[in-house]
Every structure is written in C-alpha cells, then in structure tokens.
Amino acid sequence: MTFRNGDLPALFHHTDQAAISRQRESTQATRTQLLLLVTAAAAAALPTGPKVGSLYVFGLLSVLAYAGVLGVGMRATGRRARPQWQLNRSAAEFIKSLAWRYAVHGAPFGSEVAGAEGAYRTRLEAGLAELKKMGWEDPRASGAVPEGGEITGAMFRLREQDYRVRRETYVRDRLIEQRNWYQRKTNVSRRATVLWSWTIVLLTCLALLFALFGAFGSGPGPKLTALLSAAAAAGIAWNEVRRHHPLIEAHTLIEQDLAAMMVVMQTTITESQWPSAVYETERYVSPQHTDWLARHSS
Are 124 and 230 members of one domain? Predict the structure, then answer.
C-alpha cells in the first residue's frame, strides 16, 4: 500500500499552498528591498549625469529607489506575508503529522485507543485553535475548504491494515521521503552558502582595495567604495534571511536522526513500541524542532 501527499486532507493542501505563496511573497519583498537599496546607492555613486528640467536623472533614480524600499516594506507589513507564511506552514505540517499518526496508529492514536477518530478530530481542532489565536486564518471559515474532510478514505484504509503493512508504508512513504527531502535541502543550502560566501568576500575585498587606494589619495573615490560596501551588506543580509548555514546543520542532524530511526523501526521496534516510535519520528520532522536546532546551531 502507498500513502502520498495526495492522500492527505484538503485542509493540508490548502494551507500548504498558502504557505508556499506567502513564503514567495515575503522572500520577493525582501529581495526587492535589497536590490532597490543597492540600486539607490549605485545611482548616488554615479556622476550627476543628464538633466531633465531642474532634476538630475541619476539623483531622481536614487530617490525613486529609496521610496520603493519604503513602499515595498509598508506593503509587506500590511499584508503580513511573513507571519502568515509561518502560520500556514505550521498548520500544514501539524495536519500532515497528525494525519500520519492517525493512519499508522502512532501515539496518541494507538491500536488500543477506543474512538480514535473522535480523538483525532479533537486534537486537530485544538491544535488549529492555538494557531487561530496567533492570527492563522482557517480556510474552512470562508468556505475555501469544505467541512468534514479532515479524515480521507486513504487514511481510513491505511489504519485498517495490519502492523506490517502500516510499518512498511510509514517507513517508505513518510520516513524515507522526509529524509530525502532533508538531503535535497541540505545540498541546495550548501551550494547557496558557497556562492554567497564567495560573493561577499569578493565585494568586501574590492571595497578594501579601493579604501586602501583612497587612504593614499588615489583610486576611484569613496563613492565606489560605498557602493561595494552596500552590495556586500545586502549579500550578508540576504544570506541571513535565507539562513543557509544554520539550516544545513539542522537538516543534517535531523537526517541523521531519521536514518537511525529507520534502522530501529525495521529491526527492533515491536508492535507495542510502535506508537511511541512514530510519535518520536514526527517530533523530529516538526518545524518547531527544525527552528530550535537552527537557532542553537554553532
């Protein structure tokens, strides 16, 4: 038996897409602001250039770029793109984790639990209620997602299978898939870290070289040095926003934990130990655990 993302509730798919959309919006706003700041610095560093009426073109470009930074920032703040991205991502991963636990008899929905369906719905609504308090918008309230589809037919079917089928399905379609996802993310972050690190080093070295020339009264002048400094600062800011380095460490640690858990689940875990093992695996892949590891990485 297979159990894929397509077998999860519609509520998960809606919140997952909302998280992706809001993440793209938040990231684009930050990228645009940094590019506009560098553009403004570049325009200010250029000679006065052509004149239109009483205005200098490059000076006007600098003014417009700075105004654009303020405009983009105000729009992003008003739309709450970043908070809504994080809230929708937390909601999507919570729904996904709870659905998997219910489907494979993970704690607190083990085989011995009577009324597991009711317990699942109660836990789901309680967790989503906490997110609503922080500003999450439930799509069921607006009719974007119909009520009553919190448990899919595939979830029912998987729950009815015997222990061996549930274990194999969970290890293959959840644990291994999630481990592969962390591997891909780690590789992407490593490449981005190398690219941005060398870019920042290059821009800083050029700024240092021109500043050294300026100390002896030669070189292209302080404006170009300031432009290179602004570009390097923008690179550092973008690198910090994307959190490549801490996420590499966090994802690597989680991948190692999942690899160890995969071996244990396939060799030593008994059916009575299964619910707690699933619960522990879901704890590893929660966004809160990833954020905690990223914040405390060296």
Answer: no
